[in-house]
Amino acid sequence: MTTIYQVSELAGVSLSSVSRVMNNHQHVSENTKNKVLAAMEQLDYRPNETARSLASSCSNCIGILVSELHGPFYGDMLSGIESELRAVGKHSIIAAGHSDESSEIEAIRFLIDRNCDALILLVDAVSDDYLINLSKGSTPFALINRQIPELTENCFYLDNKLGGYLATKHLLDQGHREIAYISGPISKQDANERLIGHKNALTEFNLEFNNDLFFEGDFLTKSGQIGIKKLLEGKQKFTALSCANDEMASGAMRGARDFNLDIPADCSIMGFDNAFFTEYLYPQLSTIDYPIKNMAQMATHWILKNVYKKSNLTIENLFTPTLILRESTTSI
Amino acid sequence: MTTIYQVSELAGVSLSSVSRVMNNHQHVSENTKNKVLAAMEQLDYRPNETARSLASSCSNCIGILVSELHGPFYGDMLSGIESELRAVGKHSIIAAGHSDESSEIEAIRFLIDRNCDALILLVDAVSDDYLINLSKGSTPFALINRQIPELTENCFYLDNKLGGYLATKHLLDQGHREIAYISGPISKQDANERLIGHKNALTEFNLEFNNDLFFEGDFLTKSGQIGIKKLLEGKQKFTALSCANDEMASGAMRGARDFNLDIPADCSIMGFDNAFFTEYLYPQLSTIDYPIKNMAQMATHWILKNVYKKSNLTIENLFTPTLILRESTTSI
DNA sequence: ATTTATGTTGAAAGCGCTTTCATTCTTACC
DNA sequence: GGTAAGAATGAAAGCGCTTTCAACATAAAT
Asked: What's the rounded Cα separation, in Å, for the pair B66 and B68?
């Protein structure tokens, strides 16, 4: 391994000068700079990043924690972060907590121990209080898909309420008046807000929220299938269904087929998230776009700006969902 | 930040002893050990991993490079690796090369510069020669989904030929004799092998490979749709279609619908990979399971065994695909 | 020509650990 | 009781870099 020492020797300058050249310091003469660059080239010198981290107490590394690594969501998020980071010579280390509090906390400590300069967290098992407390520590972090009043700066989240509203509003605009809803776990912030949006849309059309048209799922496919079955077997008829995510919507489509329903003729179905597979479904799923990649990139920029003092982008914390119209919804 | 120095002071022992305790060295008395452990506890000491890496020239970090981060494939792979690694206190840093040779090479250098103890690579833009040459360097690496004769030890790959065979064999067993095939880019090793498997199955049934029943796609959805259109418009009729991956199969399903074909009644369709979304499709796609997660874990174990001298698992390099029967195929 | 500000450089002290080496302390054995 | 082998410990030298500090050189201002 070539070290800075060998470079300095070959270039005939001191270690300090080599270091200055490496770090683009001001006050290095063209002459020295050229000698050093030439020596580096000749030796194919590659700085030891570990040593740099230790000496500068900056690891150029940001830690990413997601609750799960599979599913359609995280790939987009990670690729958004990774490309931004690598473009500026930084990198990410990735951990997955498995949706329970203690393992998420452990994962956060793990990342902090690795001297991450900052963290990007997509977690929901961990409490607000824990995060508020964490924010008093020395490792800055961005929170994706979460909104904590005390930590507004750090939060990058979707206007879920608007998203829920948009979905149901679209159905209403198409003439539907009996609209069922399959929710995610109400204990989760995003699920709850999407439901509120749904209710808001109903209210706008002077419609009452009807509990017989409601089913609480768990965001997984199966619960969409189960949900629509329950709903269909219930006494209350409906002509449209709004689901709190695409997985459940896909489950609901399958469930509808078990009842020989035609989508969208017999029942319009809306999803939420605009996962890539929604285009593969038949019919293609109308949904609400969740710009996760943009959000992840914005979180990255926030870190670039605040931690590394690069990037002068204006930071936005609230993201707007948009309606994606495809084949699974139709007017009545 | 608490350092080893403060621990040693509080415990009343030397730095060396603290280090020994941390690293579970032999020849530390129970007494010293307890004092050190108590001091660590009291100070909530967390070792600086960067410093450890530098001093020991072992980063406990393995680099992962995939060509793309999105898509249905990589999540499974990453979660397989991440969980294995974190269980033994190691971690991964992730880079994405964007399917072109120079950026993949750059990404590999990037990972090596970060002192990764080893690499796991899922790449296809980079040449065999480059990898053979890389293997002479000091950073060991595992190759996933690739087979290089000179590097058999490092390669973890699927028996793609068998997979291609299994898919078409199933169709043949169901009585189909006119079987179309939509391939991935023949320039890619896996696409090529799957095609060979397809041909082998035909041969076994004394059938000729018919070029009118062949379309070369690019592994993306759209090309499946285009492919089946071309095939359907061709002169040669067929009752079944085998696709070299699930994305193209999903595109083909869509294309078939454009022609008002019923799947599987009018045409059976096979996919390949068993991506999670195949269950969301209608009809659910019959496919070939690609045990990517197992393969990634095996690659990780290989590293654990060879680089860190842990794990005494027996390493297997060749993985066997299996037939997954769902709704998109039927007998004639 | 003298002062002042500014640019350029190298020596040396760390960053927080690991690891070698030498030293001291035990234990076992003849 | 003396010796050898082994166990337990600490001092000190790095790992490859960054960064302060002081020294010196140069240019601009008086």
From this structure: 5
Burial classification of residue B234, based on how many CB atoms lie within 10 Å of its CB (0-12 exposed, 13-18 middle, 19 or more buried): middle
Enumerate residues near strand C (beta carbon within 7 A). Answer: A 12-17, 20, 26-29, 31-32, 51, 54-55, 57; B 1-5, 15-16, 18-20, 22-23, 45, 47-48, 51-52, 54-56
CATH code for the domain of A193: 3.40.50.2300
3-state secondary structure of B271: coil
Residue B309 lies in a domain: yes
CA dist B79 and B300 (Å) reads 11
* The predicted structure's pLDDT at residue B332: 85
Query: Do B258 and B212 lie in a common domain?
Result: yes
For strand C, the positions having any atom within 7 A of a protein Cβ are 7-20
* A175 vs A106 pLDDT, higher one: A175
Q: What is the mean pLDDT of residues B27-48?
A: 93
Cβ–Cβ under 8 Å, residues A98 and B94: no
Q: How many domains is chain A built from?
A: 3
Residue B243 gets which letter from DSSP?
E
The boundaries of the domain holding residue A106 are: 60-158+292-320
* Amino acid A98: pLDDT: 75
Residue of A nearest to B89 (CA): A110
Q: Can you tell me the distance from the alpha carbon of A132 to that of A137, in angstroms, rounded to the nearest whole number? A: 9
Q: Please report the pLDDT score of residue B72 as a whole number.
A: 75
Q: How far is CA A58 from CA A55, A116, B4, B122, in A?
A: 8, 8, 19, 29
Question: For strand B287-289 and strand A318-319, is the pairing parallel, antiparallel, or unpaired?
Answer: unpaired
Would you state the pLDDT for residue A74?
Answer: 85
* A276 chain-B contacts, CB cut-off 8 A: 70-71
Band (pLDDT 50/70/90 cuts) for residue B240 is: very high
CB B201 within 8 A of CB B194: no
Backbone angles phi, psi at A98, to 5 degrees: -105, 55
Place of tokens 């994606």: A324
Same domain, B38 and B69: no
Please tell me whether the peptide bond between B291 and the residue prior to it is cis, using omega within 30 degrees of 0.
no
Assigned domain for B193 exists? yes
Asked if A28 contacts A16 with a C-beta cutoff of 8 angstroms, the reply is no
> Using CA atoms, how far apart are residues A92 and A82, in angstroms rounded to an integer?
7
